[in-house]
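Summary for the funding panel

The consortium committed to producing paired sequence-structure records for every protein in the target list. Below we show the first two records in order, beginning with the earlier of the two.
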Amino acid sequence: MNIKSVAQLRALLFEMETTLGLVELSPNERDILYAINEVSSGHPKAARSEAIRNHPLAASIPQATYHRALKSLVQRGLVAHAPETRAGQYVLTDQRAP
């Protein structure tokens, strides 16, 4: 793989994020949203806060920034607290980014 291939992948990702409205989110919010999607399991597909936090996309985000970004995703309606679960579990909603 070379830098040109990475640049092409990055351009494709940017186009996809734009189509989905994800460019309106901060990079940290996007990374947390992607991490939730990857670690979600069960029915409904819920993600434990610890699993989200340990995902490679979210692991390097400072703790306070992580919590602010997660709270922002909840306030935007993109993520919700998992119903009928204990605290610290989240689900993706059907809403699209603004």
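The next record, for a separate protein in the list, is shown here:
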Amino acid sequence: MGFQISKAVIPAAGLGTRFLPATKAMPKEMLPVVDKPAIQYVVEEAVGAGLTDVLMITGRNKNALENHFDHVAELEETLKKKGDHEKLQKVNQSTDLADMHYVRQGDPLGLGHAVLRAKMHVGREPFAVLLGDDIIDARDPLLKRMIEVQGQKNATIVALLEVPESQTHMYGIATVEETDTDDVVKITGLVEKPPQGEAPSNLAIIGRYVIRPEVFDVLEKQEPGKGGEIQLTDALMKMAGAEEWTGGVYGVVFRGRRYDTGDKLDYIKAIVQLASDRDDLGPDLKAWLKDFNAGE
């Protein structure tokens, strides 16, 4: 059986160039999705899966991330004096979520390099990695399921999503073998963003991983791959091929709701989808969208 997992690593050092000029002075992770920054959804997901220790891998100009998860004494005092307990509760929610830690990535050498920066904090125990561009709906608990499978297999677990063939070149794609569990597959191969028409399957890696600590040993020796970066996908491929040492790599096929905040159109769709499901916003928004579409 595996270890009790308590640590989450969230890489957040990217420049967010696809959202310029909005991200010129503000981290892309702080862009609001309805009324919370995208990064808060990710931290809440980790906490919801039972992870209490969160390490964020940051870079220059990312101070807003640390500030968001810290106390703001003046704001809290002002809300207390006003008796605005509802807003105060919302402010304190992000402060009290988890035990937050931060380390800078330094050189922007890719996702594998960002994960390697977590080595000293994580130690020799399995840990979760959550990427900020993917928001997983709280009603579809993916990470909790991945941690459960990790405990059963004592292996590294990645999240997989079935995507249309026309989109396979945008993701890392897995070659898999079925297991006796419907939503679990064994991974025998991984390829990062294969050319159009050359993908080995339609199962794409999305931004959730539960990884054994042997990944650090692999990443320390990892040569730069695609784009001159140290690719996490390459390290996972090596781990899949060294099962006797690493326990192998398995995938959990996710069939729930996922919102992509990685590009502008998908970001807007995510806001509309999440707002539509809320009791306070949904009815009026849906009515407005109906009228808006009718007016085209």
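Regarding this second record: Residues 15 and 27 are 7 Å apart (CA to CA). The mean pLDDT is 90.
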